[in-house]
Specification:
By secondary structure, this protein is α/β, with parallel strands linked by helices. Helix content is 37%, strand content 15%.
Length: 284
């Protein structure tokens, strides 16, 4: 399975481009889920969402749609993986309540969280997490250079966790290391990918594709096709800075993929009552 989406559905800059001009913000998610099959949820990083909020998300989206939640910062940035068992168990329980609509959740560590300074704390926490995760699919994103290594990828895989693969300026590309582990059946059959690009000096505006990365998309389409042939589930999320407008980047990548694999078209049943204008030309 290959599920591609964006880093959020709450982007007002997409009005008149991806969202109909007069669509109320409360209807963004339902509209988004008609065109893309998964979404990254960054709001969970700032605070664990209330069960009532999550229930509204589930009700607004069709069967087969998934949410990729980021671990709360209380765990990763404030407590820095120390004495955070209660917060983690609460978050895992929330993921379980989402059932099939939970995409792999990921723990994102700050750049200052390094192997040299925090290696033992990280190893202890991940080993504990692996014992408690059950059948949940979880991934880890590291941003310290001394953790962006094939050795750390192998350690994460040995625990039944996935390493988040990030295409970002000044970030080590660990795709080949993860692919080697998958090929040798030494990692869970899962790939979580975030296409970020240059989030400091890259495209701004978020409304249109202003910095096309054709060669990069060609390369990633071939990579995803390789993962698909291995039977790996892929969850990938585009960010606006990658090319300037994340929904367009997803569409461009999917177009390339369809030349390489049998990628089913995402066409969930339309809701009984339509809101706003017709489907936009980007997805016609």
């Amino acid at each position: 399975m290959i599920a591609l989406g964006t880093s959020s559905w709450l982007c007002d800059a997409w009005r008149g481009v991806f969202y109909p001009e007069k669509l109320p913000q409360k209807q963004y998610l339902a509209h988004y889920a008609r065109h893309l099959r998964t979404v990254e949820v960054n709001t969970s990083f700032y605070a664990q969402p209330r069960p009532t909020t999550v229930e509204k998300w589930l009700q607004a989206t069709p069967d087969g749609f998934t949410f990729c939640l980021k671990f709360p910062r209380a765990i990763s940035h404030e407590k820095r993986l120390v004495d955070c068992e209660a917060e983690t168990l609460s978050f895992l329980a929330l993921l379980r309540s989402m059932n099939d609509k939970a995409a792999p959740a990921f723990l994102q560590l700050p750049p200052s969280f390094s192997r040299r300074q925090h290696g033992r704390v990280l190893a202890d926490y991940l080993a504990w997490l692996a014992d408690y995760k059950g059948d949940l699919r979880l991934a880890v994103e590291v941003r310290a250079v001394d953790l962006m290594t094939p050795a750390f990828a192998a350690y994460v895989a040995s625990l039944g966790l996935a390493l988040v693969l990030v295409d970002r300026v000044r970030t080590v590309d660990l795709f080949d290391a993860w692919l080697a582990l998958l090929t040798q059946a030494e990692a869970p059959p899962l790939a979580v990918i975030r296409w970020i690009g240059d989030d400091k000096d890259g495209p701004t505006g978020d409304r249109e594709l202003t910095a096309p990365r054709n060669a990069d998309l060609d390369r990633w389409a071939k990579r995803l096709a390789t993962l698909d042939r291995l039977g790996v589930d892929v969850f990938g999320y585009m960010h606006n800075p990658y090319e300037g407008h994340a929904p367009a980047s997803v569409h461009r990548l999917e177009t390339r993929l369809r030349d390489l694999v049998d990628l089913p078209v995402w066409a969930p049943p339309a809701p009984e009552v339509e809101h706003g204008s017709a489907q936009l030309s980007l997805f016609d």
